[in-house]
Each structure stands twice: as C-alpha cells, then as structure tokens.
Amino acid sequence: xxxxxxxxxxxxxxxxxxxxxxxxxxxxxxxxxxxxxxxxxxxxxxxxxxxxxxxxxxxxxxxxxxxxxxxxxxxxxxxxxxxxxxxxxxxxxxxxxxxxxxxxxxxxxxxxxxxxxxxxxxxxxxxxxxxxxxxxxxxxxxxxxxxxxxxxxxxxxxxxxxxxxxxxxxxxxxxxxxxxxxxxxxxxxxxxxxxxxxxxxxxxxxxxxxxxxxxxxxxxxxxxxxxxxxxxxxxxxxxxxxxxxxxxxxxxxxxxxxxxxxxxxxxxxxxxxxxxxxxxxxxxxxxxxxxxxxxxxxxxxxxxxxxxxxxxxxxxxxxxxxxxxxxxxxxxxxxxxxxxxxxxxxxxxxxxxxxxxxxxxxxxxxxxxxxxxxxxxxxxxxxxxxxxxxxx
Length: 392
What we know:
Helix content is 54%, strand content 8%. It has 14 helices and 13 strands. The strands form six sheets. The chain has a three-stranded antiparallel β-sheet with strand order 3-4-5. Helix 6 packs antiparallel against helix 8. The chain starts with a helix and ends in a 10-residue tail after the last helix.
C-alpha cells in the first residue's frame, strides 16, 4: 500500500491543490470562485458560503498538518476575510450564497453553511490564533446546536405535524465537527457531546435487520414508509462510518470501530452497481423506485469518501474485505473521475461511468472532497498496519 500512499500524495500536491490556488481566488472582491470549468475558467461568479468555509478549512488544515506553505495560509486568510465581512446575517446565521461582491443572494436556510464556517474558522484559529476566529467558530457551533432540532427554521416547506422527519446529514456532520473543534470547545464539552451523536448515527438511523443507515426517520426514530423514509444515500452513510472510526480511536473502542466497518461495508455492498461499477447516488431500502431522477449517477464525493473509509477500515482492523474493496473502488474512481488531460477531477458521471458535465467545481463541488480524501488516504496508507492498537 506504500506505493498507493505516494500516488495519493502526489495527486494532491501536484495536481489538485495547484488547480485551486491558480483558479479559485477572486483577486478583485475576495473569497473564492468555485464555478470552474474543465480548464479552470470561471463560468459563474456567485459564491456559496459552505464552499467558502470548506476551502478555508482545507488550506488551514494543510498548513497545520502537511507544510507551512505561505501560499496555503494566504489562501485561508483570503477566504476568511470575505466570509467574515459578508457571510452572516444580523443573527449570525450564515447565508447560503452571495454575489461576487458579497451581497446576500440566498437566505441562511442551510445549516451546513454554518457547519463549514465553524469548521473553517476553527482550523484557521490553529494557524493564526486571533480571538475573532475563535469567537466565530465557537458562536457558530453554539448556533448550530440551537438550530439542530429545526435546522431550516421558518424556511422549511413542510407542514408541521403531518410527517415530521429528521435527516441523517446533521448528526453525521456533527461527529466530525465536534472533533475538528475540540481545541475551541474543550475536551469536556466534546466528551459530553459524543455519546449523543453516536446514539443518533449508530442506532436511531440504523435499520436493524437490514444493516443499513436510513437518510430520514420520524422524529421519534421510527421508520417512515414513504419516499423520504425509505431513502438511502450510500455515500453519506459510508462517509459517516470513517468519522465514527476516528471517534473510535479517540475513545479507544475497538468494538465501535468494527461496528462502523461492518455498517460501511454493508452500505457499499448494497450500493454497488454490479452492472457498470461504481456506487449509486440514491437507493430505496425496499428496492422501490427512488424519487430522485439522479439516483443512478456516480458522484465524485461518494467514491472519494468510500476510499477514505476503506483505507481506515483496513489500517485500523486489518479487514481483508476493506483491502479488497479499496482496490476495486480505487480502480473505478481513478479510471472514471480523474481527468487524464487537465487538472482536478470530474464530479458527475452517468451510470455507465461517462462524465455528464465537464466542470471541476460549481454550486456543490468545491475544494474539499477530492483534496481531503487524497490527504486522508495518503496519511492512512503511509502508516504501518495497526490492527491491534485499540482495545475491545
């Protein structure tokens, strides 16, 4: 696996990161462009706060953990300055999007803008410990906790009381975010918080008998036999399982690590397209027709996060299934998502594995999943197998 660690490291440092440092920075108004075509040319100038926060986090994290490259710190500060100036409403909620100049476009309905703002400023505080960065990260996290039972607030379209569902995405993100912000929140607060998110992720959304993670459940945790209640998002669940593995290391809990590995493998086996290869975007737990028309597309982030999960599962537990699946998913991902002619990776494939769009970034794809996964796999595979460093 050492040769693969080198491959992922080289791809990160020599291909993907230079694409973003060369093309995403808005020198005129600040912040980052994310709507970049195959060649890195800007095709739309709107700015999306969750992607701004992700890019701030990415370059802060790399500066902290890989190399104190002045360009990386400069990139992080460049994005943070724009966010600090234009990103929030008067109540401290982060907008979904702004114009190039920073005028708000879409109201702060999406709590994930807040999640990645907190994550970005938390990482920035590590490399530039200014009190205002600490305050932004802490206040934003507290606001997330305040909003999490009703994330969209008055922006929700649902009629209250008819079918009150809760979604897997927020507790999944909080598994990772709590660790990312431990230096801000303090270990005691994180220790109090972890059991709650573990309960949600590993029990409430887990469908016993099927061994699968549901995307939505009713507020009391029960199953909803509806389009939303039957929905599976294999990529979300698999990504969450490597977050859980990281928590298992912190908790020194091998039982938890093995459970996360089993769930992730089950989601992967269920979500794999045995005809064309790759992982389906959406599925129905009862194999009924999904309502999402894009259900059979193959998305970059799903495959990148699966590689991280499999690398961690193999390194942590010695699972041969993780190793074998890693080789299979690696082969598919590098063949179909990597652009052999130009930097960065394609994001959207049809079921047959052909690029649907030539873009390298947009409203949903930014400087995050590809570089984060390359970093995580590089770091994980570079370690010697450590199959017994956790105790059951």
